[in-house]
Specification:
single chain; 4 strands; two-stranded antiparallel ribbon; alpha+beta
Length: 155
């Protein structure tokens, strides 16, 4: 779970909030908790139901979003912008060939026309063996003589 961007990634995106977080801990990832006592306090709060996930209503979600926009506008919260790509605004095309490389022809059967690369081989599904390919089953006798029957027949 994203603890650094909790308000945006969890609360605003999914519309839920974690209520009842233990007071002395400070809201941070459980992986960042360093003492066993703090870990036990958090565990007890979660298992007892004191700390629970609560779904926000539409009004609560909108008010939290408005508060966040106000804090960003006033400078209380600093939003870190992603770095711009180094090749942004430059045309990007097919890679250039190195010395000695040849480009595959478009009419070659082993070339994918969209990406100009070799196609992957298709997997062939294995078929169930035919009855004629199975080994013959042993034949059993219709009747089996037991020792009692063989003695009575001999008498």
């Amino acid at each position: 779970m994203s603890y650094k961007r909790y308000e945006v990634d969890i609360t605003q995106t999914h519309g839920v909030v974690l209520r009842g977080w233990p007071e002395g801990l400070g809201f941070r990832s459980p992986a960042k908790i360093t003492t066993i006592e703090d870990t036990r306090v958090l565990h007890d709060a979660l298992t007892s139901g004191e700390c629970v996930w609560v779904k926000l209503t539409c009004l609560e979600k909108e008010s939290r979003a408005k508060d966040r926009r106000n804090k960003i506008a006033s400078g209380e919260v600093v939003v870190k912008q992603r770095k711009k790509r180094s090749d942004a605004g430059k045309p990007r095309g097919p890679r250039k060939l190195k010395a000695g490389e040849k480009r595959l022809h478009e009419d070659d059967n082993n070339v994918d026309k969209e990406n100009n690369g070799p196609r992957k081989r298709q997997q062939v599904a294995q078929k169930a063996p035919k009855l004629s390919q199975l080994p013959p089953m042993p034949k059993s006798r219709e009747t089996v003589n037991t020792t009692d029957e063989s003695k009575s027949n001999e008498d």
